[in-house]
Amino acid sequence: MPVTAQQREKKQSTKASSTKARRPATRPATRRAPKSKAQLERERLANLRQIQQTSKELNQTQEKKKASLGQLNVIKVKLTEKKQVIQGISTQLRGIESNVQQTAQQVLQTQKTLRELKAEYARLLYTASKTANGFNRLMFLFASDSFNQLALRLRYIRQYTEERQRQAARIMGTQQQLHQQLTGLTKQQQRKSSLLNSQLSENKNLLTLKTKEDQMVQQLSQQEQGLRQELEQRRRAVVQLDNLIAQRVREEIARAARAARLAARRQAELAAARRSAAARRPAGNASSASTRSDSDNDNASATAAPESDVPETAAEAAADRRAVRIALTPESALLSSSFSGNRGRLPWPVSRGFISQRFGRHPHPVLKNVTVENRGIDIQTGAGEAVRSCFDGKVLTIANIAGMNTIVMIQHGDFFTVYAKLKSVNVREGQRVSAKEVIGIVATDGEGTSEVQFQVWHNSSNLNPQNWLGSR
């Protein structure tokens, strides 16, 4: 009988140890996605808001029954936005599909683990049932050969009971994990179904917009003569605006060069006056030299002629005109450096709108084999929208140009910004303005298009404004 008890103890110990060894470990699969779900959702909502805003501007331009380039620009922007929405939905669908596959694999693995745990637990219960009554348990203990063996058998019974309890807890935990995975899988499939419906709807909207764009291009093609006249008027207006900007920049460069030269001349005259006064003083009056020198400097500064009254030679005037950069004072140099440091972060000249025509040369949207050139960017917005200064500066010029309405030119050190196509202005020449200060109201043309042209210049160099504006 003792030998039989020892064999049964070894056999049961072997089963208990094999239960621990066979316990599978479930590791969640790593998920790799280029963008998070929250980020994709934010981009989708931003695109939808932009589409709503663009729709308002399309409704504004469509109040005029005649097809216009403004309407075509709005439709093109809406097409781009719709494509971005569809692309975002496709990205989300790919991510959800990957998550569904991973979750399904995890569900299968968890179900397998649960089956193994239940089978092992059944074996434990079967083994425990053989010693379920107290008599068999006492016989197992009293059949020990020694007190040490009795203690080991008693500890084994306790460990076996604890292992059975732990096995039951593992089964419960695995069942909860399986429930969570199945719930998550259901939610992902529902989200996938919703996105598929959204994608189908957006594809229909895209097809409708594409059809509308083709119809608009066809209508505009029938107005080729009017479009060419409009293009010629715009070219003449652009030439006048370019000439005005170039003239004002040259004048400002010459003015700054003259001011710098006169400032240097005054400094030289003051230095010469100090040296002359010092040479005339007796050696014994050295104690009051500083006071008299300061008085002489004050008198010299007070009697110095203003810039406009100082005679200028022809050579000096020619040198001023040959200057190609604005001579900066310490104050204007700080302003210019600050403007340059905000490249890519400047506020937009209007609070809402989209770029309807970009910087540089590009094909005409309707006329074939016709190229248009834009010195800035055209921003289409709503009627009556306020136009704002993009940075601190001084109003250099306000002028009216046929085809460009009212233009405002603001100086920021050796940088200039130009705002054209304004209906009215709220500032005057020489006035200091701050960033986001309203300088005027956008004009609306006869076709119902409200558009402002924005340009950026550095001295005489024309820059791409889109590289200077921040994100919306």
UniProtKB/TrEMBL annotation:
The keyword Signal applies. CDD domains: M23_peptidase (cd12797). Residues 1-40, 273-316 are annotated as: Disordered. Residues 273-305 have a biased composition (Low complexity). Residues 20-35 have a biased composition (Basic residues). It comes from the Bacteria. Residues 217-247 form a coiled coil. Keywords: Coiled coil, Signal. Residues 374-465 form the M23ase beta-sheet core domain. This is Peptidoglycan DD-metalloendopeptidase family protein. The lineage of its organism: Bacteria, Pseudomonadati, Bacteroidota, Cytophagia, Cytophagales.
